[in-house]
Amino acid sequence: MKFIDSHCHLDLDAFDGDRGQVIDRSSAAGVERIVVPATTPESWERLLKLAETFSALRIAFGIHPYFLDDIPESALTELRRMIAGHRARIVAIGETGLDKMIEVDFEKQQFFFAKQLEMAEEFGLPVIIHSRRAHDRVVAMVRRSSVRRGVVHGFAGSYQQGAAFWKLGLRLGVGGVITYERARKTRNAVAQMPVEALLLETDAPDMPLSGRQGERNSPEFVPEVFSCLVGIRREEPDLLHSQILENTRQLFSLA
Questions:
Q1: Is the per-residue pLDDT at 15 higher than 90?
Q2: 145-151 LR contacts (CB < 8 Å, sep 24+)
Q3: How many Å from the N-terminal Cα to the C-terminal Cα in the chain?
Q4: Which of 61, 189, 213, 251 is most buried (most C-beta within 10 Å)?
Q5: Domain map of the chain by residue range?
Q6: CATH class of 3-252
Q7: Residue 95, preceding bond cis, omega within 30 degrees?
Q8: Strand, helix or coil for residue 204
Q9: Tens digit of pLDDT for each residue in 109-153?
Q10: Across residues 3-28, what is the average pLDDT?
Q11: Beta strand pairing status for 150-152 and 31-37?
């Protein structure tokens, strides 16, 4: 089976010692594409270089809410310039979004998120959304925009929240959370959502799978996430696999 990791931070320092080997092992496990979203302005040029070096990678440009304390509004102008200059080389805007579990000013988070939604509209790109304890506000802001393509990555909400995202055209990134039996709310939500709403991801090096706590997560573990998903869904594995692969290719315009 072939897979796509729809969200992996392969550019981070955690992979500096063996990035090529990780990509090789992922390919051997069937992971043919890895979508790597940016987090800070400093990461944009690095992502371009990585995409030139490793053909399996697809990249996105954005500014993550976690880092906004140290980022001026002028970074948005530079982001737009980078997107315009490299439109053919990126598959999405992101990682952007909202997080109520961090100390970064929430008004500033919303301002940066709104501006990145505007860029997604302008350039006709999907958005990769980070949403923690902020699902209702994310829904409200996306609804006010004309963005109707994207993914809420690392989804860990209820069925009602997932359905609200899907109603807006936002798919759900399914990752390591579902491998924990105690995550009943999210497992139940993912089990009930239309299969057309789902993508697979790792969020590596973070969000380790159950049984791998304390270890570096890796895109080579996408098949393990899929195996867990098979166990909580009703579809035949082949049908589930082919639909999720098509969802991901369609969202990010991947060949």
A1: yes
A2: 145/114, 145/117, 145/118, 145/120, 145/121, 146/121, 147/117, 147/120, 147/121, 149/120, 149/125, 149/251, 150/92, 150/94, 150/120, 150/126, 150/251, 151/6, 151/7, 151/126, 151/127, 151/199, 151/251
A3: 16
A4: 61
A5: 3-252
A6: alpha beta
A7: yes
A8: coil
A9: 999 999 999 999 999 999 999 999 999 999 999 999 999 999 999
A10: 98
A11: unpaired
